[in-house]
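Hi all, posting the design record for the shared folder.

TITLE: backbone redesign
STEP: 1 of 1
STRUCTURE INPUT:
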């Protein structure tokens, strides 16, 4: 499912990438999730992932930190 294009909003773009990455990593794991797949799910280009997060590894680290920040028990 591809998200519709959105107006320029750095915070919203960043959150869309994180949400897409969270889904992709949960479904496919780190090795199975691709940057292009994550970008498509967020409605952005893969280049923006590198601009916002630097690398797939840094994106994964942020997804994990964000997920673990608010424990759900």
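Okay, here is what came back for every position:
SEQUENCE:
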């Amino acid at each position: 499912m591809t998200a519709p294009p959105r107006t320029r909003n750095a915070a919203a773009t960043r959150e869309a990438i994180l949400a897409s990455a969270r889904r992709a990593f949960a479904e496919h794991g780190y090795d199975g999730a691709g940057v292009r797949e994550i970008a498509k799910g967020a409605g952005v280009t893969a280049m923006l992932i590198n601009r916002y997060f630097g690398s797939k590894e840094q994106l994964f680290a942020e997804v994990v930190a964000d997920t673990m920040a608010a424990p759900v028990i």
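COMMENT: The longest helix spans residues 10-32.
Let me know if anyone wants the other runs.
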